From TrEMBL:
Membrane-spanning ranges: none
Pfam families hit by this protein: HTH_20
UniProt-recorded name of the protein: Metalloregulator ArsR/SmtB family transcription factor
Alphabetic keyword roster: DNA-binding, Transcription, Transcription regulation
Coiled-coil region: none
Keyword DNA-binding: yes
Residue ranges of every copy of the HTH arsR-type domain listed in the record: 13-110
InterPro entries according to UniProt: ArsR-like_HTH (IPR011991), HTH_ArsR_DNA-bd_dom (IPR001845), Metal_resp_trans_reg (IPR051011), WH-like_DNA-bd_sf (IPR036388), WH_DNA-bd_sf (IPR036390)
SUPFAM superfamilies: Winged helix' DNA-binding domain
Length: 126
């Protein structure tokens, strides 16, 4: 099994740069890519084959490939080759970095104020 990784650069502190956040938001600002990302998040931790995604979302395979490449370069999706099949999954580290970028300066350093925001996010997915 060969893991294919996107070229995403983070500071040594693992903080996302503004340009990387903008790339991720740009990737998610297109309807099909948002649908793909949300579908992979729902399936996580299991990956999905590109063909299955294309059928489920009614997207031509070549178009889906382009969208997956954009999401991968944005650090939101990772790919893994198994034989002749490429499996895709949401990249939780990239997603976490994006969410952290959004809220890291929240509430002027008073985490108790942000608790409802964190609770809402974790109640939805965890």
């Amino acid at each position: 099994m060969q893991v294919l990784t996107p070229l995403v650069e983070f500071h040594n502190s693992r903080n996302m740069k503004k340009t990387q956040a903008l790339e991720a938001f740009g990737a998610l600002s297109q309807e099909t890519r948002l649908d793909v990302f949300r579908r992979l998040v729902r399936e996580f931790p299991d990956p999905m084959a590109a063909g299955d995604l294309a059928k489920e979302l009614d997207v031509p395979p070549s178009t889906l490939s382009t969208h997956l490449g954009i999401l991968s370069r944005a650090g939101l999706v990772k790919a893994e080759r198994q034989g002749r099949t490429i499996l895709y999954a949401a990249d939780t580290e990239g997603t976490r970095a994006l969410l952290t970028f959004l809220i890291k300066d929240c509430c002027r350093g008073q985490p108790e104020i942000c608790k409802p925001l964190f609770d809402a996010a974790t109640n939805v997915c965890c």
